[in-house]
From TrEMBL:
A molecular-function term among this protein's GO annotations: 3-hydroxyisobutyryl-CoA hydrolase activity
Domain Enoyl-CoA hydratase/isomerase: 18-337
Pfam families listed in its UniProt record: ECH_2
EC number: 3.1.2.4
Record InterPro entries: ClpP/crotonase-like_dom_sf, ECH_dom, HIBYL-CoA-H
UniProt keyword list: Hydrolase
GO cellular component term of the entry, any: cytosol
Source organism of the structure: Actinoplanes xinjiangensis
GO biological process annotation, one example: L-valine catabolic process
UniProt protein name: 3-hydroxyisobutyryl-CoA hydrolase
Alphabetical list of Gene3D superfamilies matching this protein: 2-enoyl-CoA Hydratase, Chain A, domain 1 (3.90.226.10)
Substrates-to-products reaction catalysed: 3-hydroxy-2-methylpropanoyl-CoA + H2O = 3-hydroxy-2-methylpropanoate + CoA + H(+)
Length: 340
């Protein structure tokens, strides 16, 4: 079989292990509607057979598990008024919920780049493995969007205000910080992933993963908890940026500068989404809210502009509308959260 005819997701069963390998390495395994469909159908089938005792999700190629969704397709919908993204999100969010509720152990190798939709296909798994190469991020506020795929649920449940920090800066974290933020469970050196996968074919998933666990290289978040928890408290993005900017901690001042480059509308929507998700009883309710937000933001100007600046023209100079937090309309934000 030639590379061009390879399926975008490889589904294999070896021993008692069902393997789902995202297989678009040239695109860092970015998710398409076809891939989401294959994942959902395969997981549904495997849930019904005794042959599969556990599932392993990984990515082909050396660059990462998954770089997220197809932003060019999203941009085309945002510009044209298309609805393809709405269908994609509905299916993708169902997949996120199904992974979280799966009746068998699901192991995710969060190796390399894991962003946006990549978080969605891995951070809801029951056993989440990071390596020294792991780079996790929910960078959506930088493209006029919001942390979706259950990101509001996950980040709202991170210790203290770590999730708020990650959501509003869109920052990238490594293995230790991913574990500290509750987005991953164990660190395994990347050189041992093949050995771990082989052991999962015959052993109990939780016991096997625990046997391979090691100590990750030190991270940054644990030492920053004091200023993060202090600065990110509350429901007002402007107040948060003010506290960060006036903090003596260099990391806080850097965070303030980073946040001010993001979409003001997205920042306000994202903070409210996290605070709301914190009080929800389950992931599905958070995903329902995220779908409303995604549909609303698709029709606001910042999503098309943010993707244009990052992906299409690559000038990295988005012109947000409105351009400041003070100009964000409470009525526009309220409308994003209103059930249709």
């Amino acid at each position: 079989m030639s590379a061009s005819s390879d399926p975008p997701v490889r589904a294999e069963v070896t021993g008692g292990l069902g393997r789902l390998i995202l297989n678009r390495p040239a695109a860092i395994n970015a998710l398409t509607a076809e891939m989401v469909g294959i994942l959902r159908r395969t997981l549904a089938g495997w849930s019904e057979t005794d042959r599969v005792r556990a599932v392993l999700i990984s990515g082909a190629g050396p660059r990462g598990l998954c770089a997220g969704g197809d932003l060019r397709a999203m941009h085309a919908d945002a510009v044209s008024g298309g609805t393809g993204s709405l269908d994609f999100w509905a299916d993708e969010y169902r997949l996120n919920a199904e992974l979280a509720e799966y009746p068998k152990p699901v192991v995710a190798f969060m190796d390399g780049l894991v962003m946006g939709g990549g978080i969605g296909v891995s951070a809801h798994a029951s056993l989440r493995v990071v390596t020294e190469r792991s780079r996790l991020a929910m960078p959506e506020v930088g493209i006029g969007f919001h942390p979706d795929v259950g990101g509001s649920w996950l980040l709202a449940r991170a210790p203290g205000e770590l999730g708020t920090h990650l959501a509003l800066t869109g920052g990238t974290i490594g293995a230790a910080d991913a574990v500290a933020a509750g987005l991953a469970d164990v660190f395994v050196p990347s050189a041992r992933l093949d050995e771990l996968a082989a052991a999962l074919e015959t052993g109990d998933a939780a016991e096997v993963v625990a046997a391979f666990a090691a100590s990750p290289p030190p991270g940054d978040l644990a030492g920053a908890r004091a200023w993060i928890d202090d600065c990110y408290a509350g429901d007002d993005v402007t107040a948060i940026v003010g506290r960060l900017a006036s903090s003596p901690a260099p990391g806080a001042q850097a965070a303030a500068k980073e946040i001010t480059t993001k979409s003001p509308t997205s920042l306000v929507v994202t903070l409210r989404s996290l605070r709301s998700a914190a009080g929800m009883p389950d992931l599905r309710q958070a995903l329902d809210q995220e779908y409303r937000l995604s549909a609303a933001l698709l029709r606001l100007p910042d999503l098309a502009e943010g993707i244009r600046a990052q992906i299409i023209d690559k000038d990295r100079r988005p012109r947000w509308q409105p351009s400041t937090l003070a100009e964000v309309s409470p009525a526009v934000v309220d409308a994003c959260f209103t059930p249709r």
